[in-house]
Design a protein that fits this description.
By secondary structure, this protein is mainly α. It has helices at residues 7-11, 15-26, 43-65, 81-100, 102-125, 138-160, 162-167, 185-224, 230-260; strands at residues 174-176, 179-181. It contains nine helices and two strands.
Amino acid sequence: MGDHDTWFSTLLPFWADLEIAAKSGLERDWQWLAFQSSHFTMLHVGSSAVAVLVILAAVFAWRRSLKGEGEGIVPTKNWGLSAMLDGFVGAVYNFSRDIMGEKNARTYLPFVGTLALFIFCHNLQGLVPGFLPGTDSLKTNLALSLLVFVVYNVIGIVKQGPIHYFAHFGGPKFELGGINARWIAPLMFPIEIASHLARPVSLAFRLMGNILADHKVVGVILVLFPVLLPVPFLMLGVLVAIVQTVVFTLLTMIYIGEAAAHADGH
């Protein structure tokens, strides 16, 4: 396996042809700011497929555990995929309950929990030789960030109504001369628009930068000192994978919680 090879290119004979076919129709020919010339690859698609397969395997294992002796009420004695999935989803729910409240946590757990699982499975792939994390690619991270952007704005419009939701962008009301109005709306509205548009960009670049840096550091250490020394860096990589999953998920919860809330002062 060469320096730029992965298990996809090594074990799948059709991988090279797939990348060539996709390159002819999907490769961009424009450049702008951070979107400079880059080597076209489909590795982020392959890593996404691996993440989905791992999640599906964990889900099926969890469903089988419901039919066991405890019927899902008593935790299984064996530590496996089902137990890990149960603990992961429970942690996400408890975390989201503290951020969004119990009602919103129950409502949006399928989205937030799936997002956290998907990102975590991606992040961990950077620690496995022969795999690359899809989250070190701007393509994957922008797709996830734009999905969060669309979801929380749709939630805000549905929950509060379009007029009430977008009224938040004008800032709080102030009484002046007996008139209760948003006097600073001309200033606040463009600031709020810019703030919301910056959210998916910051989510994408933050996740990409941290995972890419961690992957490069671990890769260099493995090449220079392949015995024993990489172990603490791999443990640090696990911590980075967890922290970056928590950060992305936490910000998603905050955005959804803000959009779903009914503020009386606006």
